């Protein structure tokens, strides 16, 4: 199956961005996904650092069947009245344990019904499009999660050096 480029940006100035509150924005995201249309948006926040970068990377989400959700998928889900984009690290039946790549200890639990959509493609600022099923995404993702306790130390250093957070 060939994926259509969804990240392509024409070479003309983009219209000015309009700011909307999160509730309105994510209501639109959910409505578009429910209609079967992919949604793309620029990330905000450092919870998926270093693999996804705040204000730089764009993700493309699609609706996905609950039975297809599995560990290592990056999903948008409802959690305590908010929408969060994190990675599934374990599935136990209808329950998901989810954690941000940039999180040192925090983990969230939700049900598969709380998942709004799954990331299918990453768009880098350079225009490079990375399907999440490609080795360019799966290898770094698996390597990052395979670091175990070293990951926490690397994150602390990266937060200090690059994000100015401890």
Number of strands: 8
Mean pLDDT: 86
End-to-end distance: 43 Å
Q: CATH homologous superfamily - what is it?
A: Umud Fragment, subunit A
CATH arch. level architecture: Ribbon
Radius of gyration: 16 Å
Helix content: 10-25%
CATH fold name: Umud Fragment, subunit A
State the major sheet.
8 strands, antiparallel
**How do the SSEs run, as a string of H and E?**
HEEEEEEEEHH
Task: List the topology elements.
Blueprint (H helix, E strand, L loop, with lengths): L21 H13 L4 E4 L15 E5 L11 E6 L2 E11 L2 E5 L8 E4 L3 E9 L5 E3 L3 H12 L2 H15 L3
Antiparallel strand pairs: 1-2, 2-7, 3-4, 3-7, 4-5, 5-6, 7-8
Tell me briefly what this model is:
The protein is of the alpha+beta class. The protein is built from 3 helices and 8 strands. Strands 1, 2, 3, 4, 5, 6, 7 and 8 form an 8-stranded antiparallel β-sheet that branches.
Description:
The structure is a single chain. It contains three helices and eight strands. It has helices spanning 22-34, 135-146, 149-163; strands spanning 39-42, 58-62, 74-79, 82-92, 95-99, 108-111, 115-123, 129-131. Strands 1, 2, 3, 4, 5, 6, 7 and 8 form an eight-stranded antiparallel beta sheet that branches. It is globular and about 40 Å long. The protein starts with 21 loop residues before the first helix and ends with a helix. 19% of the residues are buried. Residues 1-13 have low confidence and may be disordered.
